Amino acid sequence: MDDRRxxxxxxxxxxxxxxxxxxxxxxxxxxxxxxxFWDNPIPVVAGIVEHEGQLVFARNVRWPKGMYGxxxxxxxxxxxxRDAVVREVAEELxxxxxxxxxxxxxxxxxxxxxxxxxxxVGHGEITLPDGELAEYFHVDKACAQYWPGGTGLAVRDWxxxxxxxxxxxxxxxxxxxWLKAPPELD
Length: 186
Ligand SMILES: [Zn+2]
Prior knowledge:
This protein is an alpha+beta fold.
């Protein structure tokens, strides 16, 4: 349970913790309101982008140096996941991209998300238009490493399906520490 949600989004009364059917939930302190924060996992699209024959990894501006990942983002209301991942690649990398493959669905418990992972080929020049990424780099598929969780498992699975033998990445200590701290709220 994420108990950092402090106020009811319906009536702004402080939330309280209450046990419902054996599970602690954040509920509205006003019984007349009845809001319950179910904290269900949130779907996120993830795009493993291939550009000029290499994979593109990037670091979000909120991540420590040494941490990197792929393009991810939330779906807009009623948006198709395939449209969302193409849109995110355009917004974050400035590339026109086409999906080549749906890689799979991955749980991401650390952030209580469900990842829908795609492989895309991007065209054009990388420009980081929306400022969400601090830096990016190209990696040869033959020496791309994966990280042991979240989108990293999609990177691993995709590389293996392409016939590569990706190895797990040794994370720097500051990244390990950051991963153990509570995740940022989106
Ligand atoms: Zn309320």
